[in-house]
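Continuing the series of single-chain predictions for the mutant panel. This is the parent chain; the variants come on the following pages.
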Amino acid sequence: MAAHADGGRLQMRQAAGPFVVSLFTAPESPAVGPADLSVMVEEQGSVLLDANVVVTLTSEDASATPLVARLSYAHAANRLLQDAVVQLPRAGRWRAVLHVSERGREASVATDLIVANYSARRGTVWFFAVLPACAIALFAWVQTEKRRARRRRMLSPA
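Parent structure:
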C-alpha cells in the first residue's frame, strides 16, 4: 500500500535528547484500517534526513499484537518526512512509541492515539456521492411541478 507522507494532522511534537520529533497521521483522525504515519526528526532547528525511525503501536487491549513499522522516505511526497502505512486492526487507545537513532545517538518519544471504529471521511464521501443524485431528483420534481401548474392554468376556465 502506498503512503502519501504529506503530513496530515500533527499528533505530537516532542523533544527527546538531541532530537525534536513530530508525528503526523492521515487520515487526520486514525480509524480502523490503513493509517499513514509520517515523522519529521529535527535537531537544532534543521531537519535530519538520515535518522532511523521505528514506531511501535501497542493497543490498550493486551490481547492485541503490537505493530512495528520502520519509517522511510521511499514513498514520501514530502522529502522532509519519513512514512509508513500501518493497518490498525481495532478501535481504542493505542500507544505509539517512536524510537529515533542517528549516528550512534538514540532517543524515544511516546504518545497516545485514539483510533475510531470508522473514518469520518467515509461519511463525507457518502454525502458527496449522494448529493448529486439528490440535486437531480429535486430538479426533476421542480420541473414536474412547473408542468402541472401550467396544465392547471391551461385547463382552468378563464
